[in-house]
Design brief:
Elements: H1 2-11, H2 19-24, H3 31-38, H4 40-48, E1 61-64, E2 67-70, E3 75-76, H5 78-82, H6 87-90, E4 94-99, E5 105-109, H7 110-127, E6 135-139, H8 144-156, E7 159-162, H9 169-179, E8 183-187, E9 190-192, E10 195-197, H10 199-207, E11 216-220, E12 236-238, H11 239-244, E13 255-256, E14 260-266, E15 274-279, H12 280-294, E16 302-305, H13 312-324, E17 328-332, H14 343-351, E18 355-358, H15 360-369, H16 372-375, E19 384-388, H17 394-404, E20 411-414, E21 448-451, E22 461-467, E23 477-478, H18 482-490, E24 496-504, E25 510-515, E26 519-522, E27 525-528, H19 529-537, E28 542-552, E29 556-565, H20 575-586, E30 595-598, H21 612-619, H22 634-646
Parallel strand pairs: 4-17, 6-7, 6-8, 7-14, 8-11, 11-12, 16-17, 16-18, 18-19, 19-20, 29-30
Antiparallel strand pairs: 1-2, 3-13, 4-5, 9-10, 14-15, 15-23, 21-22, 22-24, 24-25, 26-27, 28-29
Helix pairs in contact: 3-4, 7-8, 9-10, 12-13, 15-17, 21-22
Bound molecules: adenosine-5'-monophosphate-propyl ester.
The site of adenosine-5'-monophosphate-propyl ester has 22 residues, from helix 13, strand 20, strand 24 and strand 25.
Length: 647
């Protein structure tokens, strides 16, 4: 850690937003910071007042560590705050500019999205009897109907649980079972890199044993039947048919501020993903405030967050935050390199995108693909750039700044998590300078500290990142598992433990270094090492497996698996490939190991515990340190040799 801090001091550079940007920025003075410092709760009270409430709240925060209640007594509806409130002033304003991978474009006004959301809400409520508090799983491609589905659920008070379309049938089933969803909304398929992803088949596989509570599957026919054939099941319901006779208006449910808005599963340190619970009033307060503040969002912006709605970034900064602010959002169905590697720049030029929010993995891929794809496009509509999901290395930051933003666009490097609901640490570029590689200062209203392992504050230097005061969009628990909620986030310190290591510099800027637990971050996606290990040992012939991350130039981290086979198991030449495919089938392609190393043993302590630290060192090409305490020190050399041969 000390080495890192010293090298940081050398590399620190800072950049200032242009005067043109500053002059027009939403935040002109330090008043947000100062008012939040003076009275944090009345600061949040003011932010919550920007929402439309059916009935006012009677208290701002009730804090009974680790359980928070924000804006108790108040009632509201998220879909009303994202749609109905805009109908008087901007019904004809574009809400969504959707582009399919095949080039199809749909532009939908707030009025149109309002009607579509109401129709879907009517179908769910009146045709399928989905009631307040019921869970609905959404397993869909990036099409407008996914956005409608989130808002339709919130309109009738149903809890949505979106499962990213890249997850396998087994992962989908696990999440359906854990949330006890009675309904699934899917599409026959989606397009990815020119291929058809047949989602409905995956749903059928997940439901094939008939052992889930799902009664109906609502299917959006997004692709033509002949390119995406599906089998008819008795639970099938056609969205396209039902939509024709659906009502244009459904009375919005009056939700308590603390009623659950959604569950979103994310990986943790055990084999079982956690259903992170977010509630209505607090989440929406922060989503609306942070979108406007961090992205400096204005009424004429064309805003593009490239994240899939299957992740928290898509929930907060593609749907709830921008729509609560009445923004125009761009939504793209496909891959950044299809049909060519200039697809993003083409979209920006065509739709005049002014704010782009993407991930460091994508930025590093663009760097590798070269400038020729960029130079043929006019990107002068851009005025602000964002980064999220993983640490951005200063080199990628500067490339993004120079080549995408033409040195004119400030960059916001935003640190947050599924659990935090919204951005916690980020610069506000009109107010403070940017430093490549540093997320910057906590947002006004957010308190963050770097702690040592005993919970003492480290004023300058490195340690563990903790959020030290409750905030409105904080997770309210893990679905069905309050014990795990307490253990994971609140047992280590008195305050919220984020699971990340971080460093603070002389200006109190925070640089987040990455996970300190057994969670990997591959291309900005969180994957628990235990999940991959559990999948590997299910393969016949695998006796033991250990999974660690290795540095990857583009994806930040890649997965390396060390596998011990059962003694009499016959290894064929294709075993490595078969195992990779197996993990992909069990969890999803994002969890596929990059390297698999077969070994007769793993470095273990005398009591039999696998020493992951040593495997991590090998995978990172670092010194493995002392091995004398191991029961089997010789194995380290042999694993190292094998690994070096591969990489
Ligand atoms: O390790 C941090 C990293 O992503 C983790 C959260 O992942 P997830 O819940 O999937 O949410 C991702 C999108 C918000 C964090 O614990 N992370 C996220 N943003 C940054 C980051 N690491 C460094 N810098 C960031 N800006």
């Amino acid at each position: 850690m000390l080495d890192t801090i010293e090298s940081l001091a050398k590399e620190e550079k800072s950049f200032t937003a242009s005067n043109t940007f500053k002059r027009k920025a939403n935040s002109q003075t330090q008043s947000l910071y100062s008012s939040a410092k003076t009275d944090r709760l009345s600061f949040w009270d003011n932010q919550a007042q920007n929402l439309e409430w059916f009935s006012p709240y009677t208290s701002i925060l009730e804090w009974n560590r680790p359980f928070a209640k924000w804006f108790s007594g108040g009632t509201l509806n998220a879909s009303v705050n994202c749609l109905d409130i805009h109908l008087k002033t901007k019904a004809q304003k574009k809400a969504i500019i959707w582009e399919g991978e095949n080039g199809d474009i749909k532009e939908l006004s707030y009025q149109e999205v309002f009607e579509e959301v109401n129709k879907l809400a009517d179908i769910l409520k009146n045709k399928f009897n989905v009631k307040k508090g019921d869970r609905v799983t959404l397993y869909m491609p990036m099409i407008p109907e996914l956005l409608y589905a989130l808002l339709a659920c919130s309109r009738i008070g149903a809890i949505h649980s979106v499962v990213f379309g890249g997850f396998s049938a087994q992962s989908l089933k696990d999440r359906i079972l854990d949330s006890q969803s009675k309904m699934v909304i899917t599409a026959n398929g989606g397009s990815r890199r020119g291929k058809v992803l047949n989602l409905k088949n995956i749903v059928d596989e997940a439901l094939s044993k008939n052992d889930t509570p799902v009664e109906n599957v609502l299917i959006v026919n997004h692709l033509p039947e002949d390119t995406c054939p599906t089998q008819k099941k008795e639970y099938d319901q056609s969205y396209n048919e039902l939509r024709k006779s659906a009502a244009n208006y459904v009375e919005p449910e009056h939700m308590e501020s603390e009623d659950i808005l959604f569950i979103l599963y994310t990986s943790g340190t055990t084999g079982k993903p956690k259903g992170i619970v977010h509630t209505t009033g607090g989440y929406l307060t922060h989503a609306k405030y942070s979108t406007k503040t961090v992205f400096d969002l204005k009424d004429d912006d064309i805003y593009w967050c490239t994240a899939d709605i299957g992740w928290i970034t898509g929930h907060t900064y593609m749907v709830y935050g921008p729509m609560a602010n009445g923004a125009t959002v761009v939504m793209y169905e496909g891959a950044p390199d299809y049909p060519e590697k200039n697809r993003f720049w083409e979209i920006i030029e065509k739709h005049n995108v002014s704010i782009l929010y993407t991930a460091p993995t994508a930025i590093r891929a663009f760097m590798k693909w070269g400038l020729t794809h960029i130079e043929k496009h006019n990107l002068s509509s851009l005025r602000l750039l964002g980064s999220v999901g993983e640490p951005i290395n200063p080199e990628a930051w500067e490339w993004y700044y120079n080549h995408i933003g033409s040195k004119q666009c400030p960059i916001v490097d935003t640190w947050w998590q599924t659990e935090t609901g919204g951005i916690m640490i980020s610069n506000i570029p009109s107010l403070n300078d940017m430093k490549p590689g540093f997320a910057g200062l906590p947002l006004p209203g957010i308190e963050a500290k770097i702690l040592d392992k005993d919970g003492g504050e480290v004023s300058k230097g490195g340690g563990l990142l903790s959020l030290t005061e409750p905030w409105p969009s904080m997770l309210r628990g893990i679905w069905g598992d309050n014990k795990r909620y307490k253990e994971v986030y609140w047992d280590k310190f008195n305050t919220y433990f984020a699971g990340d290591g971080a460093i603070k510099d002389k200006d109190d800027y925070i640089k987040v270094l990455g996970r300190v637990d057994d969670v990997l971050n591959v291309a900005g996606h969180r994957i628990g090492t235990m999940e991959v290990e559990s999948a590997l040992v299910e393969f016949e012939g695998v006796a033991e497996a250990a999974v660690v991350g290795m540095p990857d130039e583009i994806k930040g981290q890649a997965i390396v698996s060390f596998v011990i086979l059962e003694e009499n198991f016959k290894q064929d030449d294709d075993l490595e490939n078969k195992l990779k495919q197996f993990v992909s089938k069990q969890i999803g392609a994002i969890a596929k190991p990059k390297q698999i190393i077969f070994t007769p043993d793993l470095p273990k302590t005398r009591s039999g515990k696998i020493m992951r630290r040593i495997l991590k060192n090998i995978a990172a090409n670092e010194d493995t340190g002392g091995t004398s305490t191991l029961a089997n020190p010789a194995i380290v050399k042999s694993i190292k040799e094998q690994f070096n041969k591969l990489s």
